[in-house]
Amino acid sequence: MAGALRGVVALDGPSGTGKTTVARKLAAKLGASYLDTGAMYRIVTLAVLRAGVDPADSAAVATVARKVELTVGTTPHRPLARLGDDDVGVDIRTDRVTAAVSAVSAVPEVRRLLVARQREIIAGELAGGGGIVVEGRDIGTVVAPDAGLKVFLTADPAVRAARRGAQDSAAGRAAAPETVRASVDRRDRLDSTRAASPLRPAEDAVEVDTSELTIDQVLVALCELASRRGLLNCTAGSAS
């Protein structure tokens, strides 16, 4: 282990930048907790779809969101996602949920409810004296604006689409490259133009372009950044 994280690392960015992989590996490397806020929005989206509600109907979506019983784990090695008593870790990654999550995430009441829950989880982890790596699209700007380190991951759109396509293929959800690219572009457009907490880097975030970097190289860079911020005593090296 390279060091023990103290405080919060906020990791934001669009899909295909390696955000989830980097966040989980960084948390594991530094003996920290991990929170995937995107999974929380996906759980609510799944609940909306299961209820037969139109994701574009903000009022109906908000009603579902207020009743949702969701659970997410904070262990990087085994992230947990539950809707009620159901393990929905696979279900929330389906194309159907992916197509609807931006609309559900744009509902202000959904964001209010989930941001409050996310802050509770973060506070609980910090109260135990540990650190936490939090990933999403509004962590540095909204959820944890006081985070000791804010990072905004970016990558060339073509690279991000290729990565997303590879992930989908590995999960048995193969799609034509042009379809994947259109999906990525659509998600970017919706997330960056929504009225509630649009996707954008915090003013004090460090932008890291992952287009030509390996996961290990990104981890080394983030460890160095965290060390400079005094969040840990981290010796740079490849991920374990």
Structural features, described:
Its EC number is 2.7.4.25. Keywords: ATP-binding, Cytoplasm, Kinase, Nucleotide-binding, Transferase. The chain is α/β, with parallel strands linked by helices and 240 residues long. It has one domain: 3-Layer(aba) Sandwich (Rossmann fold), CATH 3.40.50.300. 48% of the residues lie in helices and 14% in strands. It contains nine helices and eight strands. It has helices at residues 19-29, 37-50, 58-67, 95-105, 108-127, 139-143, 157-170, 177-193, 215-228, and strands spanning 7-12, 33-36, 70-72, 81-83, 86-87, 131-136, 149-154, 206-209. The protein has a five-stranded parallel β-sheet, with helices on both faces. It has a three-stranded antiparallel β-sheet with strand order 3-4-5, covered by helices on one side. Strand 4 (81-83) and strand 5 form a beta hairpin. Helix 2 (37-50) crosses helix 5, helix 4 runs parallel beside helix 8 and helix 7 packs across helix 8. The longest helix has 20 residues, at 108-127. 43% of the residues are buried. Residues 233-240 have low confidence and may be disordered.
